């Protein structure tokens, strides 16, 4: 995860900052805040959102809990923080709006090695990334993003993957099928050690 | 004042007695206390207590309400020593950014020890209002047992309790008038807490359980509402159906504030007209909220009640522009409106057209994480509201992009803003027409709105924004900053330029030790400073703590983070010294 993060940083800082910063004082760190067009396409291969528009680049980063100040890219704990800290909408309000159809889909979630499980409403999240981030925060661990390709893994036992039990009783890796299809087939979630899969 | 001057002229010695003072025709203490007792405003009372010792004493004996903006700024012992006769306490706990998950769980702000001291010193306590505090069920049970006169409890953004705690309050607080549970993280265990109100209990005036997820015992609720004839505020949760709502309204037509349950259920024609007449019977309704899950076809039942509404809170009801427009036609008296951005600019135009008396507008995002062509509100909706609603003085506006020109137009139309909170949801988003930073937008705000007390900024911002704020925002008390600024100079401008600054909360900005230390002289006149994910180091914080011993300088450490960085810093003045209950991840320097 760390190297992926560092790579993202390289992409963002490597691209020339957009001509928009015509005004006033030299914007040093603000360059990182510029959604720069050249970084957007390559970032998609690094577990960021596949929609690579200029504007969404940053919100994607933030959803992964990445800070925009370079010094913080190296702290794994920053990523583990829930994606729900920006924009500043209270979680009660956010989740309520998502639940506005009054349908919720609570599933049990277990983490390997912990006998007591949790419950999570899948419909309170829009996609795999949000789900993974919420779980990473709930269980205070690193969960690898489902649609990342080859990742340099952090060695050690603090890295997990997310699996689910489907309607046929089989245990599958989360992330292979489209989100909506996943919602119809998931029965339970389990966070397993990465080196077990 | 005159009596004090006279006393000074007589060169009163420390042993001078009461008779001597009476002889000089000063007010006796009882009278002074009576007069000062009539002061309600906290600021006035503060000023009065500084005049002289007699006035200080008269003020402290006559004080009945106390407001503590930061629970760690004072201890319960110090509080109870100074104010012996308190009946109502308001306490705020965690820093505001805890609403957005920036403060770890178990950080603190637990009410329990306060309650233990209050049970001894304020046995006649009647009201407790808490915001962002941790409250356990044990605490609620303790409260219910310890204060026989207890009347009102209001919990906002609190956590740590469940409906078991509510059951204890219901069962044991015989004189309860207010039970107000807002936006809390609450464990919704048993649905029978409402049955714990005894049959003889009739004093309830305010009941708000809108945040609970589960069903409540409707039978118990209906009986409660029926026998509490003074009920003025009733805010239901989404388990309550339209049919049940109609029955409750039938029982309580005197309601002033109503939070509906779910506004969607298959209604027969009969039920629909019953609901409509229930609403038209509520002649005193001035506030409407709730509307969880709205079926827009049913909104017309509200129309008869709309004419008197002054506050409409639709922040949980994602209506579209047509629905809101049709409703607002009937709401000419609205002063405060909270909506979701699904109404889009067209809905805001309707606001501008139909609600000329509007003073406060809050627009929340339906889908904060949406990508691509997400809709919502924009600069043109903002302008439309400002054109129609010239009395607007409070705005909270979430949008995806904005222009400098639009903001300048808005404040030109409405120069009386006291609260201006603009959240451009993409961090570092420039003016989308000119691609320039949004400095000039906030420059216009602070130059034009001389009464501005609270400001939240967003978008691509350089130090220039902060220069403007420091130069013009002379009445600013609260400033929220995220992803902004270019250098330490920005924060310095604010700290040096805003004389009334009380709360400064900053996240993800390039402000480091120089900025932090530039406020050395300032922090004691402020309630608190929050800085997270900036460039402050532990050494900077240690230096601040060393220079200013009356400040608590706390760093929240994360696991595995760089030891020299201070990722989350919370600085506040306190007469209580360092926290005695700090968890291991909070370092007091």
From TrEMBL, chain A:
<dbReference type="InterPro" id="IPR053793">
    <property type="entry name" value="PB1-like"/>
</dbReference>
<comment type="similarity">
    <text>Belongs to the Aux/IAA family.</text>
</comment>
<keyword id="KW-0678">Repressor</keyword>
<dbReference type="GO" id="GO:0009734">
    <property type="term" value="P:auxin-activated signaling pathway"/>
</dbReference>
<comment type="function">
    <text>Aux/IAA proteins are short-lived transcriptional factors that function as repressors of early auxin response genes at low auxin concentrations. Repression is thought to result from the interaction with auxin response factors (ARFs), proteins that bind to the auxin-responsive promoter element (AuxRE). Formation of heterodimers with ARF proteins may alter their ability to modulate early auxin response genes expression.</text>
</comment>
<dbReference type="GO" id="GO:0005634">
    <property type="term" value="C:nucleus"/>
</dbReference>
<keyword id="KW-0927">Auxin signaling pathway</keyword>
<dbReference type="InterPro" id="IPR033389">
    <property type="entry name" value="AUX/IAA_dom"/>
</dbReference>
<keyword id="KW-0539">Nucleus</keyword>
<keyword id="KW-0804">Transcription</keyword>
<dbReference type="Pfam" id="PF02309">
    <property type="entry name" value="AUX_IAA"/>
</dbReference>
<keyword id="KW-0805">Transcription regulation</keyword>
<protein>
    <recommendedName>
        <fullName>Auxin-induced protein</fullName>
    </recommendedName>
</protein>
<feature type="region of interest" description="Disordered">
    <location>
        <begin position="1"/>
        <end position="46"/>
    </location>
</feature>
<comment type="subunit">
    <text>Homodimers and heterodimers.</text>
</comment>
<feature type="compositionally biased region" description="Low complexity">
    <location>
        <begin position="15"/>
        <end position="46"/>
    </location>
</feature>
<dbReference type="InterPro" id="IPR003311">
    <property type="entry name" value="AUX_IAA"/>
</dbReference>
<feature type="domain" description="PB1">
    <location>
        <begin position="104"/>
        <end position="196"/>
    </location>
</feature>
<dbReference type="GO" id="GO:0006355">
    <property type="term" value="P:regulation of DNA-templated transcription"/>
</dbReference>
From TrEMBL, chain B:
<dbReference type="GO" id="GO:0009734">
    <property type="term" value="P:auxin-activated signaling pathway"/>
</dbReference>
<dbReference type="InterPro" id="IPR032675">
    <property type="entry name" value="LRR_dom_sf"/>
</dbReference>
<protein>
    <submittedName>
        <fullName>Protein TRANSPORT INHIBITOR RESPONSE 1</fullName>
    </submittedName>
</protein>
<dbReference type="Pfam" id="PF18791">
    <property type="entry name" value="Transp_inhibit"/>
</dbReference>
<keyword id="KW-0833">Ubl conjugation pathway</keyword>
<dbReference type="GO" id="GO:0010011">
    <property type="term" value="F:auxin binding"/>
</dbReference>
<dbReference type="InterPro" id="IPR041101">
    <property type="entry name" value="Transp_inhibit"/>
</dbReference>
<keyword id="KW-0217">Developmental protein</keyword>
<dbReference type="Pfam" id="PF13516">
    <property type="entry name" value="LRR_6"/>
</dbReference>
<dbReference type="GO" id="GO:0010152">
    <property type="term" value="P:pollen maturation"/>
</dbReference>
<dbReference type="GO" id="GO:0031146">
    <property type="term" value="P:SCF-dependent proteasomal ubiquitin-dependent protein catabolic process"/>
</dbReference>
<dbReference type="Pfam" id="PF18511">
    <property type="entry name" value="F-box_5"/>
</dbReference>
<keyword id="KW-0539">Nucleus</keyword>
<comment type="pathway">
    <text>Protein modification; protein ubiquitination.</text>
</comment>
<keyword id="KW-0927">Auxin signaling pathway</keyword>
<dbReference type="GO" id="GO:0005634">
    <property type="term" value="C:nucleus"/>
</dbReference>
<dbReference type="InterPro" id="IPR001611">
    <property type="entry name" value="Leu-rich_rpt"/>
</dbReference>
<dbReference type="InterPro" id="IPR041567">
    <property type="entry name" value="COI1_F-box"/>
</dbReference>
<dbReference type="InterPro" id="IPR006553">
    <property type="entry name" value="Leu-rich_rpt_Cys-con_subtyp"/>
</dbReference>
<dbReference type="GO" id="GO:0019005">
    <property type="term" value="C:SCF ubiquitin ligase complex"/>
</dbReference>
<feature type="domain" description="COI1 F-box">
    <location>
        <begin position="26"/>
        <end position="65"/>
    </location>
</feature>
<feature type="domain" description="Transport inhibitor response 1">
    <location>
        <begin position="84"/>
        <end position="130"/>
    </location>
</feature>
